[in-house]
Amino acid sequence: MTIPANAAEALSQLLGPRFSQSQADRDLHGQSETFHTAPPPDAVVWPLTTAEVSQVMAICQQHLIPVIGWGTGTSLEGHALAIHGGIVIDLMKMDRVLDIRSEDLQVSVQPGVTREALNTELRATGLFFPVDPGANASLGGMAATRASGTTAVRYGTMRDNVLALEVVLADGRIIRTGTRAAKSSAGYDLTGLFVGSEGTLGIITELTLRLHGQPEEVASAVCAFPNLEAAVECVTATIQSGIPMARIEFVDADAARAFNQASGSQMREQPHLMVEFNGSPVSVREDAEKFGELATDFGGQGFDWATTPEERAALWRMRHGAYRACLALRPGATAVVTDVCVPMSHLAAQVAAAAADIRAEGLVGPMVGHVGDGNFHSQLLVMPGDADELAAAKRVAGRMAERALSVGGTITGEHGVGIGKRPLMRAQHGDAVDVMAAIKAALDPQGIMNPGKVIPD
Amino acid sequence: MTIPANAAEALSQLLGPRFSQSQADRDLHGQSETFHTAPPPDAVVWPLTTAEVSQVMAICQQHLIPVIGWGTGTSLEGHALAIHGGIVIDLMKMDRVLDIRSEDLQVSVQPGVTREALNTELRATGLFFPVDPGANASLGGMAATRASGTTAVRYGTMRDNVLALEVVLADGRIIRTGTRAAKSSAGYDLTGLFVGSEGTLGIITELTLRLHGQPEEVASAVCAFPNLEAAVECVTATIQSGIPMARIEFVDADAARAFNQASGSQMREQPHLMVEFNGSPVSVREDAEKFGELATDFGGQGFDWATTPEERAALWRMRHGAYRACLALRPGATAVVTDVCVPMSHLAAQVAAAAADIRAEGLVGPMVGHVGDGNFHSQLLVMPGDADELAAAKRVAGRMAERALSVGGTITGEHGVGIGKRPLMRAQHGDAVDVMAAIKAALDPQGIMNPGKVIPD
């Protein structure tokens, strides 16, 4: 579609140069980090206030223009691609930390604040925001996709750490969900409904987040395992034993090779676990000892402790750089990224089956995972334009999803549905998809909020 | 209303004697634990299977008969009262623990399993289900009201501990929400939507719950404080310090007196905190010492440790019996129970203001609270038929709610809305109430699911 002239006029009057139909701006907001592609949106707006978002929505509703929210553009499932055209609302100019309430362990932020910016701002308070998807994503985007990452095993996902939202609905109405209380039983959990709704029900314009005390003591380590099964079984045993891991990440031999190549690390080209312990000096020592015993039982060796803050930062920077490091294993490649999450008792078998399938299809597909949650990723490297390779990668991804569903798992643990996982939604949810569609129709009767995402046809 | 003859015929054919219109059965399902009253329902059914619930719903939908779910009948807000007549679905015959998956720290249960029955069943596994609202409520009812209780400060509420549901919708369709994975980003959080929906969107017929390892070491204690402010400020300091309390409960002087009278305990008639620590022997000792120092700073004295499992059980039995113990302070009385929850930094002032208000109105209103969450209750004792006293109690409750809302808190931390809190919903949620109503209309277009609850007119 193209933007009707009177809509463009209204947006231009409202936003001045913060409404753009230039090719450059549109192209910048038509990118994706993965193999998903789509034509760029028809226009981009950069609101500064909730009132502006509301007015943009009212104009778009009037002209039935699709609206797509945009944060840092780091989605892996094509969430922010304008597949039906329309206007991208880039929220990155709404980037203020509004109110740090240290005594209540809470902060209110605008959606364009990134997680790193927030934690920089919080440094002096002794508090931090734990959810950590790797990318330095915007908090609005993280809420919209129900992101999690390396620390979810201890601190939960965005579902657990968003207390309240301000949301602009499809018709421009502004609502507030949730409260500043730690819990509430006052009616439907709208906060939980908007978290993970991927911009299909409304645009998040403010978030109230739970904060956590910076742990007194932190210890991180890397440990090699003789094979993939041993590493993953060690994770299952660790979680079942109740050791309160702050992080427990799986890295396969290919990913270790990618890390070495990208970061100059000297990991053995073997499966590894990267772990972190948080707490008091006494509890961290106790937890680390217990984990060490379990790791030894599973053949873990060569514990490499990151003792200084700098070493720890380097360790997790390396882990956070996994996506780009793995892409570099095959220069020029793009990726099909899988994201299944399964019950712990099935994790080792599922990871092993995925590895075997990747090998059988002759693909390069390093694997990493937030395995303390049962969540693991393979990054299937394909050359753009190689249809056979893309088809093989999609077959592997499809079988991983099928296997996950066969044991009661999910097709996506943290990346969200976007366009990539949409065809699998009915396989996972059955008729519950119709309930999702009914909610979508109730809140967005014209279907202008990020159309073509989440809900299958 | 009365049940149309052909509907009664269909229900009778389906359920035989498990469909009843007898006055005795109706009266049993028209009770409330508090001052809320309503005429009994027109009929009661006791389904044994999800399929039966589905068929009951289909019949009720066809004849536009209101349907109200029923568990143990321990709601404090009149949730299960048939205020528009109709049929109560008593789910207590669906009481099987279906599948304990110890390795995944999960269990699947039918909705009529009570929390105590579940924990009895789990005893041999080393696992337990932590959510503990005091009453031995059904797990279906606890999910429907988003219950929490004494352990939420450590283990979260039903929102955090329900992983998946089976739900029968208004038209009889059966859906499954959620998965067996620890987390999921696959579309709208329907599990979270049905948890806390109080039977207004569907009937929960199966729950998958998170389990937790029984802690290696448990220590409980009671400690007296010179006044209410000191006790509550000690709680705020404790939470802010990050000590991972398993329980931290406030009891005022009146409630202590009620405990002494009901349980033969010998508490001083002063405000108290009742606390519990869970963990390894080392961490419990460390946590208890840190808390002891804080308590001493706030004038806490007379630490009374419950060291044996029997003593601990007696301590928490006493706490769980608070509602009846407090009622017994005034024989013949019924109660208006308040349930506000506020941000920690406002807790002491809000508790003190409530106490002053109760005194000023000349009411007896012992206070207890899950203060680690910022949640506290006053139990305003009123004599049935004394309209002035009831009006005074409602004034006090109304002002507590207003004060909670003025600091961003909630009108109900854990009891739910029912009919009691319904008039306050718009004050708390503003236009977000219309979004709740739109969802309700989308999922229950005929309005037969527990009508007159949660959503205000």
UniProtKB/TrEMBL annotation, chains A, B:
Recite the UniProt keywords alphabetically: FAD, Flavoprotein, Oxidoreductase, Transit peptide
The text of the family note is:
Belongs to the FAD-binding oxidoreductase/transferase type 4 family.
* InterPro entries (UniProt xref): FAD-bd_oxidored_4_C, FAD-bd_PCMH, FAD-bd_PCMH-like_sf, FAD-bd_PCMH_sub2, FAD-linked_Oxase-like_C, Oxid_FAD_bind_N, Vanillyl_alc_oxidase_C-sub2
| Official protein name in the record | D-lactate dehydrogenase (cytochrome)
Required co-factors: FAD
Q: Where is this region: Disordered?
A: 22-41
Q: Which GO terms describe its molecular function?
A: D-lactate dehydrogenase (cytochrome) activity; D-lactate dehydrogenase (NAD+) activity; FAD binding
Q: Which Pfam families match?
A: FAD-oxidase_C (PF02913), FAD_binding_4 (PF01565)
Q: Which residues form the FAD-binding PCMH-type domain?
A: 37-214
Q: Where is the signal peptide?
A: none
Known EC number(s)? 1.1.2.4
Phylogenetic classification of the source organism: Bacteria, Pseudomonadati, Pseudomonadota, Alphaproteobacteria, Rhodobacterales
Q: Which organism is it from?
A: Paracoccus laeviglucosivorans
Q: Name one GO biological process term.
A: lactate catabolic process
Q: What class of enzyme is it?
A: oxidoreductase
